[in-house]
């Protein structure tokens, strides 16, 4: 049986291909440009597909065409465009392949931050104070402008509005925000603190079959964002909150629940839910929870009988992300406490020696790292 993996410039794509390929499972990489995952020796075939940012419907049609192949078992969702297509067109895919992913209603619920926070409150999960921008009264403190919806179809494209951090006393132009984001965004209190956690799970129709936790040590930016260095942890409070929310949603398939520890009172505060596989997928595999393989077994009708254990303390790096993190320490920004670059550089060097686990680099499969390096350099030169 063959599994289709979207080939994207996020390390989860490469991690999934390696995971499945090492177990002898055939993998097709569906990519709109040369991706690190497609360069892996574990990729059996590369198929060119439209970019969902340019032609969302065409991208969905291409995935459906792959699903209709008799050897195709299922498809992984690695980004918002993937789960948008798979959930909204689930009825088209289900006659041909296994569909172990959340349905349209569940995806739309977690992509709507307003609805998600209401469910979280009822489940006893702490959430930050949030309101539509016109109703926000907290501009005297640092604020975060977040889209209410994490992804929107705009003019046939998958549009993902960006998050914006505002310093104390800054009041944005509401009309300009609505125009930019194609809807009325939300304002949210800035939750101070450096401890960010992820709770990761694979559910089988409301029942967890595999879970994992990590703590972000460094992100692409010193104030937060996608992680570039993280470590496996086991926090009972994190597990309780993550399970409570996903069980309240009657979840099915993979999900990441993101939390931040509020330095003011030590509470874990919900940030968002990603209804798909996550960027740091390689870490869970390094630590012992092979989510892509468990997803494959779920698709085969052979779910995990005993939840897998993992090794606490294992960590993993995105090498180019470590450099981006250091560059963020040079920017003149007032939000958050900015660490000194000297000690951070020392910490990075030490962690590279003590935890030589990487999302892209693998001695026996080096090409994904080289392609990622080429793509990263090309993107940086394009911005310049």
What does this structure look like?
A 6-stranded antiparallel beta sheet has the order 15-14-11-12-13-16, sandwiched between helices. The chain has a 4-stranded parallel beta sheet with strand order 3-2-1-4, with helices on both faces. Strands 5-10-6-9 form a 4-stranded antiparallel beta sheet, with no helix packed on it. The radius of gyration is 20 Å and the shape is globular. Helices cover 35% and strands 24% of the residues. The chain has helices at residues 11-22, 56-67, 80-88, 90-93, 104-111, 113-122, 174-181, 236-248, 281-287, 291-299, 319-328, 341-354, 367-383; strands at residues 2-7, 26-31, 45-48, 72-75, 130-132, 143-146, 152-154, 157-159, 164-166, 186-189, 196-204, 207-221, 224-232, 253-261, 268-274, 315-317. With 384 residues, the protein is α+β, with helices and mostly antiparallel strands. The termini are far apart. The mean pLDDT is 92. Helix 2 (56-67) crosses helix 3. The protein folds into 3 domains: 2-108, NAD(P)-binding Rossmann-like Domain (Rossmann fold), CATH 3.40.50.720; 129-189, no CATH class; 196-357, ATP-grasp fold, B domain (D-amino Acid Aminotransferase, Chain A, domain 1), CATH 3.30.470. Strand 1, helix 1 and strand 2 (26-31) form a beta-alpha-beta unit.
Number of distinct helices: 13
CATH superfamily of the largest domain: ATP-grasp fold, B domain
Order of helices and strands: EHEEHEHHHHEEEEEHEEEEHEEHHEHHH
CATH topology of the largest domain: D-amino Acid Aminotransferase, Chain A, domain 1
- What is the CATH architecture term of the largest domain? 2-Layer Sandwich
How far apart are the termini? Answer: 44 Å
Proportion of beta-strand residues: 15-25%
Gyration radius (Cα, Å) is 20 Å
> Helix amount, in percent?
25-40%
Largest sheet: 6 strands, antiparallel
Overall pLDDT confidence: 92
- Give the domain tally: 3
CATH class placement of the largest domain:
Alpha Beta
Q: What ranges have pLDDT less than 50 throughout 5 or more consecutive residues? A: none
Number of strands: 16
What is the topology, as strand order, of the major beta sheet? Answer: 15-14-11-12-13-16
* Rough outline: globular
Task: Briefly note the structural class of the backbone.
Answer: alpha+beta
